[in-house]
Design goal:
- The complex is a heterotrimer of chains A (96), B (238) and C (371).
- Chain B is mostly helical and 238 residues long.
- Chain B has nine helices and no strands.
- In chain B, helix 1 packs antiparallel against helix 2 (28-52), helix 5 packs antiparallel against helix 8 and helix 6 packs across helix 7 (138-152).
- Chain C is an all-alpha fold.
- Chain C contains 14 helices and three strands.
- Chain C has a two-stranded antiparallel ribbon with strand order 1-2.
- Chain C starts with a helix and ends with a strand.
- The relative contact order of chain C is 0.10.
- Mean pLDDT of chain C is 86; it is low at 1-17 and 337-362.
- The chains are: A alpha+beta (96), B mainly alpha (238), C mainly alpha (371).
- Chains in contact: A-B, A-C, B-C.
- Strand 3 of chain A pairs antiparallel with strand 3 of chain C.
- Chain C: Its EC number is 1.14.13.149.
Chain lengths: 96, 238, 371
């Protein structure tokens, strides 16, 4: 039932306070970017949840496919040497 | 006292009119936007009325002739374009007025300094919508032009001095306010491919009427609805 | 939506190529889905999921969203008559929240490819339901309090477990909603308390409202377990965490002492504490009334849907105007150059998005330190 007058969907990212990244808050409909920002302000920050907002057309997001999750993410799982806990340091050695 | 009532009643009455949109807005996003504006205005009204007395006594127990709001803000919602034009006319005025009050040394400076941020957003909301409605479809253009025309004659009242507000320290010069308002509104209206009406900004006897307690017929019904429950239980607390 | 279709297409295409491999892949997918649910992890939009799971979720999220939107009406009925400015501000904020909650839930449903317009069309055509409770009228100011205390109370009892629902976007929407709704119930209770302790007329108004809203609130938990058609599967899928009767009993246990503190009576002479069971017993619910309201014969079914439809139809020219303006003023597509206002670093990390991409980008916008 979608027609040309249906407003597109936008993804909303909100920075909750200075020093933190923008995180995904949800989505909303708006006819254009300016209105999307305003709608996001009204909907997602009406309880002082944010100091900064990004809106991005949902169609602009390219997402990884769950079918590829093994090849995308599993190869990272067997490389424990990337984590500091992999290494044994004698007791008493400091600042390392 | 008179000035607090004038500013407070403007905010109270416009908030009430916007509250009438709840459940009727053209799209869910506007339900939230209109309610935000109504809540800002109600908050301003409560502070202002409290300066003049008890907020609920003033809101609920005054007769129609004792209200000091502009006739513009009491006008019924009409369609969405009509409401948006009312918002444009009023919020540009309120924004400019509060900017000036905030910069002055008058009694309302602290309150205006806080409210001016809210009002800037109301103005932006109205301007954004006037652009979209004016330069949208043929129908939206026609409806918005009709709103501009119908409400024009209520705009002159905004530039009548208000007793207790327009003193030398207030920062408010009504003629300067009118010129600045006209420039700002003209710019938005023209960008929206609409025309600002050229007729008189107030009817023959109506200039400043709302501020004197002379209102239009729909206002009586509006406050009848607003006050009936409170008045039905004299002395009760809620 | 695009990717959902793509996933399904992939399945079908594979089927024609290599039936054996497909059967294996299908089994793997089911196993992965079952394992995720069993491990109490969340299913996310682009994961494979059984068609029936998807359909159940869309139906439930849509019904939930519709309930928020229709639920604005009975309370908005009193905004213009609220008896104090404080109460008026509270009520406006609450009705506004309901619009917002509807939007969160429609967004959650959109992650499964059901667009909001499509769902609204179904609501307007009477093909999807909303909670029957909103087909009762708000006759007095006290009804606003009763809705907050009882209706929102029942809703919260239902919704808190949904924060752990197996479907990620639904669970996240519910976390947000529950957080915001915590004031809804309290304001209702406080409103009733003021009436109950007020004048005789106010007290009577409050009691009358509780009398009228109590039984419909109990019905909000749905039919008894032995008559509930969807419950068992939803529990297995962890969309639902507790049975209808279990939640209903929990609600009664919560309400009894609250009513006492209010100084109001619950209109059920059979309510009594059962020491042995460690819970309250209560009277039989008139399910024929529930069925009638469900069928469309409640006091306000017609009125609610007519108002919703009218708002939508009368708003059509506004939505069209904004869309027409956006089309006229759309920035010229220039795939090589980023839009001027785009943020320096891309916000759209793959994991953040629930909405897969199909078309090319329009411009993004950002705002720093707004209002």
């Amino acid at each position: 039932m979608s027609s040309s007058t249906d407003w597109p969907l936008w993804e909303v990212f909100v920075r909750s306070r200075r020093g933190l990244s923008h995180t995904h808050a949800g989505s909303l409909h708006a006819p254009d970017a300016e209105m999307a920002l305003r709608n996001a302000r009204d909907l997602y920050t009406r309880r002082s949840e944010g100091v900064s907002i990004w809106v991005v057309p949902s169609t602009a997001v390219t997402a990884s496919s769950p079918d590829e999750k093994d090849s995308f993410f599993e190869p990272a799982a067997d490389k424990p040497y990337r984590h500091p806990t992999f290494y044994e340091i004698p007791d008493g050695v400091k600042h390392l | 006292m008179n000035a607090a009532l004038a500013l407070g009643d403007d905010a109270l009455v416009l908030s009430h009119r916007l509250g009438e949109w709840a459940g009727h807005a053209p799209v869910l996003e506007e339900e939230v936007a209109l309610a935000n504006i109504a809540l800002d205005l109600l908050g301003q009204a409560r502070v202002l009325l409290s300066l003049a007395g008890d907020e609920d006594e003033l809101a609920y127990l005054r007769e129609e002739r004792a209200f000091r709001n502009l006739q513009l803000v009491e006008q019924p919602n009409g369609d969405f374009a009509h409401t948006i034009v009312r918002q444009l006319y009023f919020s540009v005025y309120q924004h400019l007025l509060y900017e000036r009050l905030a910069a002055g040394d008058g009694a309302f400076a602290p309150l205006a300094a806080k409210a001016v941020k809210e009002v800037a957003y109301h103005r932006d909301h109205a301007e954004q919508w006037v652009l979209r409605l004016g330069d949208g479809t043929e129908e939206s253009h026609r409806r918005t032009q009709a709103g501009l025309d119908a409400l024009w004659r209520f705009t002159g009242e905004m530039f009548q001095p208000v007793e207790g507000l327009d003193g030398p320290d207030s920062g408010v010069d009504r003629e300067e306010l009118r010129t600045t308002w006209l420039t700002a509104v003209t710019e938005t209206v023209e960008r929206a491919t609409l025309n600002l009406p050229t007729g008189p900004q107030s009817g023959g006897w109506a200039a400043g009427a709302g501020r004197q307690g002379l209102h239009t017929e729909p206002f009586g019904r509006m406050i009848a609805e607003m006050q009936h429950l409170h008045r039905s239980h004299p002395g009760a607390s809620w | 939506m695009a990717a959902v279709t793509a996933d399904q297409t992939t399945q079908k295409t594979l089927g024609t190529v290599d039936a054996g491999r497909t059967a294996d892949a299908e089994a793997d997918r089911v196993a992965a889905f079952d394992a995720t649910v069993a491990a109490d992890e969340r299913i996310e939009p682009r994961d494979w999921m059984p068609d029936a799971y998807r359909a159940t979720l869309i139906r439930q999220m849509a019904q939930h969203a519709h309930s928020e939107i229709i639920g604005m009406q009975p309370e908005a009925n009193w905004i213009t008559r609220a008896p104090s400015l404080r109460r008026k501000a509270i009520l406006m904020a609450k009705v506004q929240d309901e619009a917002g909650h509807g939007m969160y839930l429609y967004s959650a449903a959109e992650t499964l490819g059901a667009s909001r317009d499509e769902l609204l069309d179904k609501l307007h055509a009477g093909r999807q339901r909303y909670s029957s409770i909103f087909n009762y009228p708000t006759l007095t100011w006290a009804d606003v309090g009763a809705i907050g205390w009882l209706v929102d109370g029942a809703a919260i009892t239902n919704q808190v477990p949904l924060c752990r629902c197996s479907y990620g976007p639904y669970a996240r929407a519910m976390v947000r909603i529950c957080k915001e709704e915590s004031f809804h119930q309290r304001q209702g209770y406080e409103l009733l308390l003021a009436l109950s302790r007020g004048t005789e007329a106010q007290h009577a108004m409050a009691q009358d409202a509780v009398n009228r809203w109590w039984w419909p609130s109990l019905m909000m938990f749905g039919p008894p377990d032995d008559a509930s058609s969807h419950s068992e599967q939803s529990m297995a899928w962890k969309i639902k965490r507790h049975s209808n009767d279990e939640l209903r009993r929990r609600f009664v246990d919560i309400c009894v002492p609250q009513a006492e503190a209010l100084g109001l009576e619950l209109p059920d002479p059979d309510i009594r504490w059962n020491e042995e069971l460690g819970r309250h017993e209560f009277g039989a619910i008139d399910w024929s009334e529930f069925q009638e309201v469900l069928k469309g014969n409640g006091p306000c079914n017609e009125q609610r849907i007519t108002q919703r439809r009218r708002a939508h139809e009368e708003g059509a020219w506004v939505r069209e105007a904004a869309a027409a303006y956006a089309a006229k003023h759309a920035p010229k597509p220039s795939p090589s150059a980023p839009p001027a206002a785009a943020p320096a670093s891309s916000p759209a990390s793959a994991s953040a998005s629930d909405q897969p991409s199909a078309r090319t980008a329009a411009s993004a916008r950002h705002v720093e330190e707004t209002a």
